[in-house]
Amino acid sequence: MEINGLPVHALSVHGAVVFGPLAALAGLAYVVPALRDRVRWPLVVTVVIAVGAIWVSYVSGESVRDNNEFFRTGEVGAMVETHEQRAEVLRLVTTGFAVVSVLAAWLHTRSGPVRVLLGVLVGGFALATGVWTVLTGDAGAQIAWNGING
Questions:
Q1: Nearest to residue 122, comparing CAs of 21, 16, 3, 31?
Q2: Residue 33 CB neighbours (<10 A)
Q3: What is the C-alpha to C-alpha distance for residues 78 and 43, in angstroms, rounded to an integer?
């Protein structure tokens, strides 16, 4: 998968590494009751963009790996395997984060235990998304800086 000769993966990862942490920060802000009303729509927008970018990155990354023997063998192959395993977790965590965030925005007027539960879920998924974005991005950067150039 390419755009003008450049792998889509090289383009889409930029959206993932920008919007993943932004969505995570918006999710953590959503947990603060005083900010919840103002943050819910920016949260939904950023998490939907993040999940889209992460899915495109995941699928296009598989295409890069499958079409290049260099990324499937040796030390670089092991690095790619680590990156791919982390990306799988990130894809699932961020998808859950998006579902919970949209649900929280939709049920925003609820009070009591439902509101508390949604806040806890959004906060937990936000934290997990932030952590897995960093871990996955670091594994990808290791391939670029140490695997290809090393």
A1: 31
A2: 10
A3: 35
Task: Tell me which amino acid residue 5 is.
Answer: G
Task: Tally Cβ neighbours within 10 Å of residue 109.
Answer: 6
pLDDT tens profile 55-75: 999 999 998 888 888 888 888
Instruction: Tell me the fold of 2-145.
Output: Four Helix Bundle (Hemerythrin (Met), subunit A) (1.20.120)
Here the tokens at position 94 are 């961020």
In 60-94, which positions are buried (b, 16+ CB within 10 angstroms) versus exposed (e)? bbeebbeeeeebeeeebeebbebbbebbeebbebb
Report the pLDDT value the prediction gives residue 113, as an integer from 0 to 100: 93
* Spans of the chain, pLDDT less than 50: none
Task: Please give the model's pTM, rounded to 2 decimal places.
Answer: 0.90
Does residue 86 sit in helix, strand or coil? helix
User: What was the pLDDT predicted at 10?
Assistant: 84
